[in-house]
């Protein structure tokens, strides 16, 4: 199949909407990463997402909607969920809530769970598609399963070109790491994945400490949170102070002596975590493309957006 390259203008939005309505697969820009979208109410279209990505198991997909009202037709919002939606949507936050009786998202997109992940992305072209379509769009990151998430249309085409109908190309994604996932299922809200909204931003809205999601009896699980994820071909060595001979270097802040590095990039020479998040996946892809066997990565502080950056780096470094 030929993958069309659509501009983020009226014609591109109209064609993306037409393709989705017809059950096609369209990569859509968001403020976090590009998503591989399909009509979430169409089981056959959603099955196409898993096939194109080569996703081994049926992890639940986030349903993307244009506003809070559309989200409330699909999920049941308790007080903290509503407060978080009002504070951060549109934006890089996914809320996992109980599915509502009127929810028409197909079983496959929810992986059969009684909960649903919902998000209103902050991107004008994609919001225009969601409004025009009038149906929720299921969209995981638009990469081959287990590969590095795409923050540019070229990344999407490199992984999925020829396997999907179109990519709506709106240039680089602004934030660069995926949404923060918070489960609001009664009791204290739980953090299932750190992301573009920081822990302290969430805590300021809910007025309590955000509990970590995975542990504890009866807690929700994010089945997609496999340890090895976001994987480059190269091995990663984290919290490095300088490159060893033969390693590529991924810096943060002022660089050490780089004379022994085979390739270098810097997430943010001025130690800005926002800039580092925006550069993370593109720099990992660039260094990986040099064929270096190992990438040494400078220490990233665990505060603010650093929590999400470290999470992605730890997954990229996990044994596989
Ligand atoms: O920023 C993002 O969230 C991007 C853009 C495209 O929106 N999407 C994204 O999707 O990162 P994906 O599929 O790569 O990651 C979604 C995660 C998975 O780990 C999945 O297990 C979890 O969300 N998830 C989705 N629905 C869930 C549910 N009902 N319960 C628990 N976890 C859920
Ligand atoms: Mg992903």
How are the secondary structure elements laid out?
Layout: E1 4-6, H1 10-21, E2 26-28, E3 35-39, H2 43-53, E4 63-64, H3 68-72, H4 79-88, E5 93-98, H5 107-110, E6 115-119, H6 124-133, E7 137-138, H7 153-160, E8 166-168, E9 180-183, E10 190-193, H8 199-206, E11 211-212, E12 235-240, E13 248-251, E14 263-266, H9 273-289, E15 294-298, H10 306-317
Parallel strand pairs: 1-8, 2-8, 4-6, 5-9, 10-11, 12-15, 13-14, 13-15
Antiparallel strand pairs: 2-3, 3-7, 4-7, 5-6, 9-10
Helix pairs in contact: 1-6
The structure holds threonylcarbamoyladenylate (TXA) and magnesium ion (MG).
Q: Which characteristics define this entry?
A:
320 residues; alpha/beta; DHBP synthase; Rossmann fold; 2 domains; eleven-stranded mixed beta sheet; four-stranded parallel beta sheet; 10 helices; 15 strands; globular; binds threonylcarbamoyladenylate; binds magnesium ion
Descriptive overview:
The protein has an eleven-stranded mixed sheet with strand order 1-8-2-3-7-4-6-5-9-10-11, sandwiched between helices. Strands 12-15-13-14 form a four-stranded parallel sheet, covered by helices on one side. With 320 residues, it is of the alpha/beta class. It is globular, with a radius of gyration of 19 Å. It has ten helices and 15 strands. The chain has helices at residues 10-21, 43-53, 68-72, 79-88, 107-110, 124-133, 153-160, 199-206, 273-289, 306-317, and strands at 4-6, 26-28, 35-39, 63-64, 93-98, 115-119, 137-138, 166-168, 180-183, 190-193, 211-212, 235-240, 248-251, 263-266, 294-298. It has two domains: 4-212, DHBP synthase (Alpha-Beta Complex), CATH 3.90.870.10; 235-317, Rossmann fold. The longest helix is centred in the C-terminal third of the chain and has 17 residues, at 273-289. The relative contact order is 0.15. Helix 1 crosses helix 6 (124-133). Bound molecules: threonylcarbamoyladenylate and magnesium ion. Threonylcarbamoyladenylate binds next to strand 5 and strand 6.
């Amino acid at each position: 199949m030929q993958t069309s390259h659509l501009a983020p203008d009226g014609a591109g939005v109209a064609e993306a909407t037409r393709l989705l309505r017809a059950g096609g697969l369209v990569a859509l820009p968001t403020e976090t990463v590009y998503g591989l979208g399909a009509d979430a109410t169409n089981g056959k279209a959603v099955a196409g997402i898993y096939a194109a990505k080569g996703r081994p198991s049926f992890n639940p997909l986030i349903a993307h909607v244009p506003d809070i009202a559309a989200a409330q037709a699909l999920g049941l919002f308790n007080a903290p969920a509503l407060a978080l939606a009002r504070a951060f949507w549109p934006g890089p936050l996914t809320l996992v809530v109980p599915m509502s009786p009127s929810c028409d998202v197909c079983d496959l997109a929810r992986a059969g769970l009684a909960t649903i992940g919902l998000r209103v992305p902050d991107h004008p072209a994609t919001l225009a598609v969601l409004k025009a379509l009038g149906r929720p769009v299921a969209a995981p990151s638009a990469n081959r399963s287990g590969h590095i998430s795409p923050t540019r249309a070229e990344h999407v085409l490199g992984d999925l070109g020829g396997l999907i109908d179109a990519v709506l190309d709106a240039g680089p994604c602004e934030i660069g790491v995926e949404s923060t996932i918070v489960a609001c299922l009664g009791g204290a809200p739980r953090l299932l994945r750190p992301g573009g909204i920081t822990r302290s931003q969430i805590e300021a809205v809910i007025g309590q400490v955000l509990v970590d999601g995975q542990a504890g009896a009866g807690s929700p699980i994010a089945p997609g949170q496999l340890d090895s994820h976001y994987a480059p071909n190269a091995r990663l060595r984290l919290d490095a102070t300088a490159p060893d001979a033969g390693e590529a270097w991924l810096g943060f802040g002022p660089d050490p002596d780089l004379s022994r590095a085979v390739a270098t990039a810097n997430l943010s020479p001025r130690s800005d975590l926002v800039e580092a998040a925006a550069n993370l996946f593109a720099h990992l892809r660039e260094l990986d493309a040099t064929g270096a066997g190992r990438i040494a990565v400078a220490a990233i502080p665990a505060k603010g957006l650093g929590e999400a950056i470290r999470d992605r780096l730890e997954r990229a470094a996990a044994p596989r």
